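Researcher: Good morning. I'm working through a list of sequences from a screen, and I'd like to move beyond sequence-only analysis. For each chain I'm collecting a predicted structure so we can compare shapes side by side. This is the next one on the list. No need for commentary yet; just the structure.
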Amino acid sequence: MKQKRTINLLFISIVGVLLVLAGFGSINKSKALNLPQTSLTPTLDVALSVTQTMHAIYSATETARPTPTIIPPTATLSPPIATALVIPDETYIKGFVGHKQFYSIGCETSVAVDLAAFYGVTITEYDFQMSLPKSDNPDLGFVGDVNGPWGQIPPYAYGVHAAPVVDTLKKFGLPAEGGKDYTFDQIKAQLAQSNPVIVWVIGRMEYSEPVAYVDKQGVISIVAPYEHVVVLTGYNGDTVRYNNNGRYADVQIETFLNSWGVLGNMAVFLDYSG
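Model: Good morning. Structure tokens for this chain:
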């Protein structure tokens, strides 16, 4: 817009100058011929010069005018839609190998190294057991002597719950997840993704009354006699399959849920999805 206004002013100035020159030319010519002054109208030559000048300015303006650049519209990409996991009616994981625990009440250590081995990570039972934190509260660390008798509750030799096992697996670089209050559907979802799941049960899928134990710091932990862990590897509409000290067994879902619920539905698994 500013460029166009400048060109217009230039054009008017040029026309004015040409008109003045034409007038002077006409006066001088009249004086030279001793003719009376009749008109200051520009001659044909001057008019032609004005026309040519206007054409030149117009051409220069058209040449200087920028050519608009046409930018094609950019396609908007929609974010990918997450596919909801469909939990099958039954699934069984192949290739999981368990072994008999080395320590008397070291079942948590035994299944933890088995779980790591399933994903190709080798950990010895000794290294894992020594890496577990120690505490008089099983929610915080291993309670008692790992070679003590099975079936007791804290403060006597007992074992360890889910959270310290998760933390110790992470020390070895494994993406462990776990804790309390899992649902059976959440467990089935992990099994459907070929992730074996460690679960806390009582004995050989039995039931015992939970006990509210108070540690030295006054913190309450729910414990139970004959606390034990096994590894779930599959299920169907009626039963779940688990590995206990290297041996497979199937148990009714209701029986499993009854035993699993005593200690608050604890579970641990490895999550490589993230």
